[in-house]
Amino acid sequence: MPHLSRRAALSLAVGAAASPLLPAIAVAAPPTLFPVWTVGTPGEMNWRVIAAATEDAARKLWLEWESLDDADEDDIPELDVRPTNPAVVEPQEYESEISLTCEQYESLGWDQICERCQCESDPSNYRVLPAMEGKSSFVVCHDCMRTEDWKHIDPDMYEEELAAERESQTAQAPKQAQPNE
Predict the structure, then answer these.
(1) Does the residue 132 lie in any domain?
(2) Full-prediction pTM beyond 0.85?
(3) Strands ordered across the beta sheet of 80-83
């Protein structure tokens, strides 16, 4: 039977304990992150948020998704392509269109469609209501806001709206007849 000296045993133990500290031989390379671009036609509701390596790649992807990649040059609208703030939309691992949350659209200053009346509203005329009752966050224009909505986004405004409703109800309530004396 082979004999293992104390020195050899100690070397093996130290080597085994230190092995997790050594770098792995085959390490997967970190993915390349693609910058995010907003692409669309000025004045139109056809904007897309696209992760692509370059501005030109983002433009080509937009044309492809709009089914204009084979169109004549005269049929292609003038596109506006601009980088998107990485604080709002993080760089992505793959070239793709990105779905944004209502809050991200608001941060970008984009118009949105009101969930209730389906009208287009600019950021000064809508609010993003938080997720509630199993529904994700959604946009409501000021014309469609209900008193209850304010409770979730601006408690002070909610109290003002409640007070105005009470005052309105008091003013509309029929006055009780005073007994004749």
Answers:
(1) yes
(2) no
(3) 80-83, 36-40, 48-51, 96-97
CB 145 within 8 A of CB 167: no
- Segment holding 157, helix H or strand E: helix 155-172
Rg, C-alpha atoms of the chain: 30
Residues 75 and 121 in one domain: no
Asked if residues 37 and 82 have their Cβ atoms less than 8 Å apart, the reply is yes
pLDDT higher than threshold 50 for residue 100:
yes
Residue 6 located in a structural domain: no
d(CA 117, CA 89): 28
3-state class percentages of the chain: helix first, strand second, coil last, to nearest 5: 40, 15, 45
- What the block records as the tokens of 58 is 């983002």
Only one residue has tokens 């792995």, namely: 24
Written as six digits, the tokens of 84 are 């998107």
